[in-house]
Write a structure and sequence with these properties.
The chain has 19 helices and 20 strands. By secondary structure, the protein is of the alpha/beta class.
Length: 498
């Protein structure tokens, strides 16, 4: 995956570094008496995958929660809740995630009364698939109830709470749940579990976006305490606007999902024009312009790499203006400031981002999972410019990919498959381009291109062995490719070499 697009026959590793790459004869010259030589029988070796956008703590926590994305009706969802709740210890919270009302027969979210019947004795918290809204029962509402007037509490015509929280109320509920109901031991176990999940998919480095309004500050604290004991390499992002705190922590980056808006599915993404299925609503950015501009400028002048969540074109516009002002006032080369998601940019916004040198962190599997919902929310014409992967590359932008786990699973091969089968044919990538998003491009967006991202002499010996070659397989087979072994610093940490 280097700039020469070379295929080699063999690789030699010494310690945790790649020693030599080339043909069999050349590489075997590096072997000594104690050298272990493995013939993979033609299996393909790629650089270790890099997931450039995960919520790593939440990934591990959700691995022990109820996954609801497969539910196709509310009755099925409630049965799943009942069965799961019956297996939980007395007094324990019942946590579920991944429900998507657009996939349910009823085309609506669960109600508080129905959730009370499904789970009457325990507090119940169900996160929507995008994490930008949630549904709770009465027992959870008693604990998580936000202060009066907080935006995002949904009521019926009689003024009764219906069970769904969005916007600031969703952030309040999520934060309070994670702050008060999850202990440190559970958090450490969650990070270790997330590491195992990543390794099983060939991911050797993750960008972990922790803390902030949608999560818990304790997530970030525990991550930093355990950073070098985790089974994968981690680049930590603190999702706050406290620049002094980031600098004192020794971080070179700040932000992540500091949410300038929400999601298209929850109709909380900030759009320049109204939603197709809600003509009187276009959403709005969560922060005032001056707040975003002051934060970006302060972090930029401090030498930090800035990353912020912007999905709708109105939120993208707000962040673009902030970057434009910061770079005008204080020019800085090779800043690699990021936009996370960049889901619905206009053609003009793509060109402006390219001129500014903004790096784009995308999630190709978003298109795979939302291709039926997006046209409903946006209309067919506007949907054609959602997740515009090909347009971003053609504009010369640095584009790296991640999963946004646990929103979609850590699975680079699913991401590659999603990129090459994009719902809009004109936005599809080649397999090679798609793999670059999870390897060398993801190394660049993390300022690690000299250490990771390609199988190159001198770089870290982080590699993944696949059971088939995505570059030669049929498109349909790419999503079925599995990891035979994952190698981190020259050591096999998942699977085995044959």
């Amino acid at each position: 995956m280097d700039s020469r697009n070379v295929r080699a026959e063999a690789v030699a590793v010494s310690g945790d570094r790649i020693l030599s790459v080339g043909d069999n004869e050349t590489v075997l010259e590096c072997a000594g008496r104690a050298t272990r030589i493995t013939d993979l029988g033609g299996l393909r070796v790629f650089p270790g995958f890099i997931d450039a956008h995960t919520h790593f703590m939440q990934t591990g926590l959700d691995a022990t929660a109820l996954y609801l994305n497969h539910a196709r009706s509310l009755d099925e969802l409630y049965r799943m809740v009942e069965e799961y709740a019956a297996r939980q210890p007395e007094g324990a919270w019942v946590r579920g995630y991944g429900y998507d009302e657009t996939k349910l027969e009823e085309r609506r979210s669960p109600s508080r009364e129905e959730l009370d019947r499904a789970c009457p004795e325990r507090p119940l918290f169900l996160s929507r698939v995008d994490a930008h809204s949630c549904a709770v029962n009465s027992k959870a509402w008693e604990v998580l109830r936000p202060k009066v007037g907080l935006e995002g509490v949904q009521y019926d015509s009689q003024g009764a709470f219906v069970g769904v929280l969005t916007k600031a109320a969703n952030a309040h509920a999520r934060n309070l749940l994670l702050e008060t109901c999850i202990g440190k031991t559970t958090r450490v176990e969650a990070l270790e579990q997330a590491g195992r999940i990543a390794l099983a998919k060939g991911v050797t480095t993750v960008h972990a976006l922790e803390g902030g309004t949608l999560f818990s500050e304790k997530d970030f604290e525990v991550l930093m305490e355990t950073l070098f004991r985790l089974p994968v390499r981690v680049i930590p992002f603190h999702q706050v606007m406290d620049v002094a705190s980031a600098c004192s922590s020794g971080l070179k980056q700040i932000g992540g999902c500091i949410t300038l808006d929400g999601s298209i599915g929850s109709r909380t993404a900030a759009l320049l024009n109204p939603y197709e299925d809600a003509p009187d609503w276009r959403g709005h950015p969560y922060y005032e312009d001056h707040v975003v501009e002051e934060f970006v400028l302060t972090a930029h002048k401090a030498g930090l790499q800035v990353a912020m969540h912007a999905i709708g074109d109105a939120a993208i516009e707000q962040l673009l203006r902030a970057y434009e002002k910061a770079l005008t006032v204080y020019p800085r080369a090779d800043h690699r400031h990021r936009m996370e998601h960049f889901s619905l940019p206009t053609a003009d916004q793509i060109q402006r981002a390219a001129r500014l040198g903004i790096a784009i962190s995308v999630q190709p599997s978003f298109d795979y999972f939302t291709k039926n919902m997006i046209p409903v929310r946006l209309g067919e014409r506007r949907a054609r410019r959602a997740h515009p992967l090909r347009s971003l590359l053609e504009a010369g932008l640095l584009v790296a990919a991640g999963s946004d786990s646990s929103i979609t699973p850590i699975d680079p091969m699913l991401g590659v498959f999603s990129a090459v089968t994009h719902s809009q044919p004109e936005q599809r990538l080649s397999v090679y381009e798609a793999v670059k998003l999870f390897t060398i491009n993801a190394a660049y967006i993390g300022f690690e291109e000299k250490e990771k991202g390609s199988i190159t002499s001198g770089k870290l010996a982080d590699m993944v062995v696949l059971d088939r070659d995505p570059l030669t397989e049929t498109t349909e087979a790419i999503s079925e490719i599995s990891v035979r072994a994952t190698i981190l610093g020259g050591e096999v940490v998942f699977g085995e070499l044959i």
